Amino acid sequence: MTATQRPRNHQPLGSLSVSPLSLGGNVFGWTADEAESFAVLDAYVAGGGNFIDTADVYSAWIPGNKGGESETVLGNWLASRGNRSDVVIATKVGAHPDLKGLSAATIKSAVDLSLTRLRTDYIDLYYTHYDDESVEVGEFLTALDDLVRAGKVREIAASNISAKRLEESLAFSAREGLARYVALQPHYNLVSRDTYEGELADVAARHGLAAVPYFALASGFLTGKYRPGTAVDSARSGGALKYVDTDRGRRVLQALDTVAAAHESEPATIALAWLAAQPTVAAPIASARTVEQLPALLAVADLTLTDAELALLNEASA
Q1: Cα separation of 175 and 65, whole Å?
Q2: Following DSSP, what letter does each residue of 168-181 receive, concatenated?
Q3: I want to staple 190 with a disulfide (CB 3.0 to 4.6 A). Which of 158, 160, 260, 317 is the partner?
Q4: Integer Cα distance of 196 and 188 in angstroms
Q5: Catalytic residue flag (residue 58)
């Protein structure tokens, strides 16, 4: 499919074409078992989504897990549905407990294990999960270029990297004629703007990188279900609760409620639409533990905020 043939609202990401919402796979094999994960994945694709994000480390933080559980669930789903060519699979290297860092040897071992778990012979988008400043950019970029040349990876991207190292990486790829980063996965949302805006976003814009923000809903806070005095049973509630009693958190929730009411929409949809409207952003990442959580996320594809609404949200989140 060429850029001119992209489905409605799909964004270019290097040679790839991705839907406006990237489905986060961190919950697969964690808060969603395989059957629940399959149901969410089926509903996501049925709703027009094609961009699924995971990592080799998901979900090593759970007692009894070793990492790779999410990739395994996703690989089983791909095999059972026979739809590999219809979806864009992103995964990451560098944070698995047994394969940390970005040495060439680590990358080459990790990619083969990810391919095995994903039950595929290629990864569409391969991220360096965290920068490893003990390794020269030339070492890991040459290793990643080897993967692209071998057909194991289609495009490469970076997450959790400084503006300086990102600029250095892009310069090295250009100078040496190697595969270059086409996307950046930053921590970015309405209550965490300085984690991307500024120097890092400027580098992305200057070099034409697509941003695919993680924590797009601030661990669920921007869904609006976390309010002062309200208890929520969620494995991620700790991450969301830190915003509840802050001035910015209260301002943002009020603004989200106002804009959501105007669109007869959910706060989560508005929060994602705000992200989607930001310069460089191609597709925010959000995860769903159940099928019932998906409609509010997928609705971002059909919602456009007015300039006044964007200004209201910008002021509330400043």
Answers
A1: 41
A2: HHHHHHHHHT---E
A3: 317
A4: 6
A5: yes
Helix (H) and strand (E) counts in the chain: 11, 12
Could you give the CA distance from residue 198 to residue 205 in angstroms, rounded to a whole number? Answer: 11
- Please report how many Cα atoms fall inside a 13 Å half-sphere around the Cα of residue 246, on the Cβ side: 13
Structural tokens at position 129: 């999960």
Beta bridge partners of residue 11, listed in sequence order: 18
**Tens digit of pLDDT per residue, the chain (318 long)?**
333 445 668 999 999 999 999 999 999 999 999 999 999 999 999 999 999 999 999 999 999 999 999 999 999 999 999 999 999 999 999 999 999 999 999 999 999 999 999 999 999 999 999 999 999 999 999 999 999 999 999 999 999 999 999 999 999 999 999 999 999 999 999 999 999 999 999 999 999 999 999 999 999 999 999 887 666 666 555 678 889 889 999 999 999 999 999 999 999 999 999 999 999 999 999 999 999 999 999 999 999 999 999 999 999 999
Q: What is the DSSP string of 224-268?
A: T---TT-----TTHHHHHHHHTSHHHHHHHHHHHHHHHHHT--HH
Residue 204, both tokens: 């992305």
Task: Given the residues 44, 58, 130, 243, select the one marked as catalytic.
Answer: 58
